[in-house]
Every structure is written in structure tokens, then in C-alpha cells.
Amino acid sequence: MKYLALLLLLATPAHADGFAALPYAELEATPHRRVSFDILPPATEPGHVFNAPLRFDGLSIGERLAGQTCAETVTAQDRFDALRGVPALPLGALAGARGQNLAVAQHAGFGSNALFPLGPRGATSRGGRGEGAVALLFDEGQWRLGLRLHADYADPLGARAPRGTITLRFWDGAGRLIAEQALRAVSGVVSMAWQSDVPIRALTIVNTDPGGIAVDDILYQTAPATG
After folding, report:
1. Does domain 2-220 have CATH number 1.10.530?
2. Side-chain half-sphere of 214: how many Cα atoms within 13 Å?
3. pTM score, two decimals?
4. What are the backbone angles phi and psi of residue 179, rounded to the nearest 5°?
5. Spatial contact of 136 and 148, defined as CB atoms under 8 Å apart
6. What are 67-119's pLDDT values in tens digits?
């Protein structure tokens, strides 16, 4: 149900016929690679703080892509990273400022380690963990990919600030925008996956949600669809 609700909130793709959302479980059911961040020892927040891009087999993770700059969006609730510009060639994943790049920490919502993009307030502030930008750069173009995202915990009393927006941008190997999707943040873990007729080389994510975001279980290099 959460997957279906999310689809209703997705913006229309920027262009790119053949770009579409699909069930995350469909990718899990085929051969794939997964980044789960559990290769690191569990650590409470701020956890393991990295001032350089993270490197996995076939995937680099940074704050932004080469050619982009990191600006700041200020709302009534908090301060957030905002990415400006388009990727430059050759594509590269760049780190943010010291203490404002990425952290990996134990996450109660996922029940495991997860990636926290660090925002302008930095790793030492609770208001800086999850408010940052994150860029996923794949060594090869991906026809299908997926990830799980947590925005905030349930708020049954309705006492928290209004939910913010999460914006995802998908880029091809020439640094051109394939699609852009904006969704209203929802509580709990949301599993998302996509397929594209234009191979996806990079995905950037920014948000303005007061609770910030965390990312886990990135699926890529999936088996091609047949039939």
C-alpha cells in the first residue's frame, strides 16, 4: 500500500519515454547487487562520518556530482542542502564540506545501518543528519535500480512540523536529465524502484523534510527484464 500511495505522489518524469516506477520486490527477485551499509560495525548517531565519497563495487556515493554546487535551502523548520547546476563530464561523485558529507549509523526504522546525508548543520547536530544531498554514481548505466528510503517516524499526535518534499533526479551518461520526481515525504520506510529505456548513470536526492532522510538497500546491476 505504501508503494501505491507513493506512486500517486510522484511528479511526471521530465522527459524520457520508457522511464517508470516498478515494484522494489521485482528487483529483489532477480539477480542484483545490493549496498546495505552493514559492512560497517553498528554505531549510534552520528555514527561513522565520512569526509570523502564512499566507494562500493560499481557504485560511488558522494554529496553531489562534478559540475554541481551545493547551496542551501532554509525553511521555517530547518536548513537543507540544495544542488545547483548540471553534471559535468567526466561524471564524478564529489564530497561535501568536512562534517557535512555522509554518515553511516544504526537506524531504528531500518533496523540496520543506513546512510545519512549530512546537511548544513553537520554531523554533530541532530538537525544536520539527513538534511543533506546525496549523489549515487554508477560505473555503468543502469536499466533498473532501486533503494529504500526513510523520511521520519509516525506522528500519531500530529505535533510535528508539516512534511517536506523529496526530489530525485536521474541523469544519463552524458549528464543529461532523464527524469525528475518530487514526492511528499511519508512516515516509515518506503521501497522504490525504477526502470528506464535510457540507462541511468547517476541519481541525486535532496529533501526539505524536517525529519531528514536515510537511505538503505540500494539495488543495482539487476538482471535485464525479458519477455
Report:
1. no
2. 30
3. 0.90
4. -160, 155
5. no
6. 999 999 999 888 999 999 999 999 999 999 999 999 999 999 999 999 999 99
